[in-house]
Amino acid sequence: MIRVGSGIDVHAFGPGDHVMLGGVRLAHTQGVRAHSDGDVLLHALCDALLGAAGLGDIGQHFPDSDPQWRGAASGQFVRHAVQLLAARGWQVVNADLTLLAEAPRVAGQRELIRASVAGLLGVAAEAVNLKATTTERLGFAGRGEGLAAMATVLIESNSVAPR
Ligand code: MG
């Protein structure tokens, strides 16, 4: 059995000198406003994982109000989601991620981010794809007010009727 899930995440830029993307720290002229580390790629991925398994969304599992998750590395969210899926018989087949931002540009870090995300998911780097696009200077991303990410994942189970 297979299932698909999608996720989207947005964060505003704020004071700071780096942005976390896919678990990789990229130097930038601004930081990201967030309760956690504000990693839009991993937040979108986490929602895609939860969505594929019918497990709700990232806000339900990692509420902003819970001090346990304040300043958390978003890799923890992804690892936890993968564990929730595994407990129900699901494993990740592949993930396709898209970053929407004018900056930072990820071209030079693409393979590093792929490997980082693959490590969190427990899959080969080839099973993770990272795309990046600007929005042609349109909208909040185009004005450099923040950045967004979208994720799609496929999961599979060997059993006929996963829990
Ligand atoms: Mg987020």
How many structural domains are formed by the residues?
1
CATH top level class name:
Alpha Beta
Q: Return the string of H and E elements.
A: EEEEHHHEHEHE
Q: For the largest beta sheet, what order do the strands appear in spatially? A: 4-1-7-5-6
> What name goes with the CATH superfamily?
2-C-methyl-D-erythritol 2,4-cyclodiphosphate synthase
Summarize the entry for a quick read:
By secondary structure, the protein is an alpha+beta fold.
Overview of the structural elements:
This protein is α+β, with helices and mostly antiparallel strands. The chain has a single domain (2-157), classed as 2-Layer Sandwich (60s Ribosomal Protein L30, Chain: A), CATH 3.30.1330.50. Helices cover 29% and strands 32% of the residues. The protein has a five-stranded mixed sheet. Strands 2-3 form a two-stranded antiparallel ribbon. Strand 5 (90-100), helix 4 and strand 6 form a beta-alpha-beta unit. Helix 1 (40-52) packs parallel to helix 3. The longest helix has 14 residues, at 74-87. It is globular. The protein binds magnesium ion. Magnesium ion (MG) binds at residues 9, 11, 43.
